[in-house]
Design a protein that fits this description.
The chain has 585 residues and is α+β, with helices and mostly antiparallel strands. It has 20 helices and ten strands. 59% of the residues lie in helices and 9% in strands.
Length: 585
Amino acid sequence: MAIVAMKRVTIVGADADRQTAVATVRAAGVVHVVAGRPPQEPPAALVEERERVLRALEGTASPACPPETTAAEARLALERRQGLLARRAAAVAEATALREECAQARPWGDVDPDDVRWLADHGVRLTLHAPLARGFDVTTLDAADWVGIEQGDGGRLRVTAVHLDPEAAAELPALTLPARSATAIADERTSLEGRQAQLEAALLEAADDVATLHAHAQWLDAQCRTHRVRTGLGERGPLFVLDGYCPADRIDSLRRAVDPHPLVLMVAEPEDDAPVPVALRNGPLARTFEPLVAAFKLPGYRELDPTPLIAPFMGVFFGFCLGDLGYGVVLAIVALLARTRTRQAAVRTMLSWAALLGGWTVVVGALLGNVFGMRLYTLVDIPRDALLFSLADEPKTFFYVSLGFGVVQLSLGMMIRLVVFTKRRRWQAALAALAWLLVIPTLAAGFMGQLAWWPFAAVCGVLLLFAAPEPTLARRLGGGAWALYNVSGLLGNVASYARIFGLGLSSGIIAMVVNTIAATLADGVLGTALAVVLLVAGHTFNFAMAVIGSVVHPARLQLLEFFSTFFEGGGQPYAPFETTSRGDA
């Protein structure tokens, strides 16, 4: 449906044309290469250089369009960035040492350690102690000629003792004398912070170096992959064989690239059990949901792409979980504004997804009549009957609607499974799929008294006999018994959709509570100010928590409950062997 059709391609040539074939396929950029034999690892120098570049780029974002660069430019950029990073690492280590030294010197205050050492040279020993205030016994300092006691930090005392007898020893442990005063350390920390700020500014200003290194990293990746492709080519005597997969609509462009060279291109349909790579092709709206599917697992090549199916369900479920027109407007505006400020493709896709979900929330919130926890019909002259239902006033209706979503989506998944088994002429599996599809309707009709119990019993009998079409009767009945046990799992999956009800109701009630408390506080200037602060803080917190829950739980319903009815997955992504900003090999 939305999976790109692939062709198996094989390029054969004389061993002398091996390099030509690799360069041609890389320039065409449409072939997912399959190794004909175990490839060799790239040269150690190439791998080491790639690791150095990646370490230098750690924490940076790749530009949308990396610039063209040369190896010499990339190495100069790497040297400059590594120098800045080394200086920053040294500054961080120095800052850590200064923090430890400052902690040691803090109890001494502005006392100059040189003065303390000068007194010791002239027979006067000054010590500093920091005992706990509770249980402190001053008699432990009886040997001192003078004692000063002050209140310190953390429940401790600051005890200063002066000994005129250098041999006199105090029973109380003394703090270590620092190498320099706290003032000197603080001055050095201030200077170090200035140098760190300059280094950070220099790293930010070196954006061209970062872009150059990202381009170089891509080129190094391509070099490593090129090496693996070259060494993984199949061998057939004096010939080499390059196997792979190419989208059916790109075969002509591959043929035009190969024809000028002494190479033979053969095209065939993929074998039924071949691990064909998967490329998805959806419309602009459904495309934003592809990362959600890919994060779980890609469909197999001969499976149905579930992306167009989960797109509307995810939008509706998210809208009912968030359930507020105002929150939907805020989410859409924030996502669209953020999208205009980034050039990273992955981030832009995620923000497009967020904006689309915000749009769904606007529609659902308008139908439910919620605007920042207020009733829409109290703000706008619309009839109350025009709304679907009220989350707070009609929670039972909302609960039944949530379960209805589960029945509809799970039934759709079981219908897909039925169609797939029918097309594959797996008649026993198709009969079992039909029985699974009828479990909920016959069970619900039986409970409501609309239908006798024998249809449900017949469905259970079909599951017992055909849910596990094994060759032996014992194994068939054993698998069927397990399927009957899993009927409770199917009902549990339907019950899981009640989380839509829970999330939508909780976020709506919290919004109303925030409004009620703010209205109570709004009395006088101070009360009005507090009410405004509460409204902003309360709705911001509720919005953030509701958005997170509205993404996580509907996504779980798609990937676990819905996918379990028909989806197998396990496809490998289509990764064409292509050139980068530097085409040299």
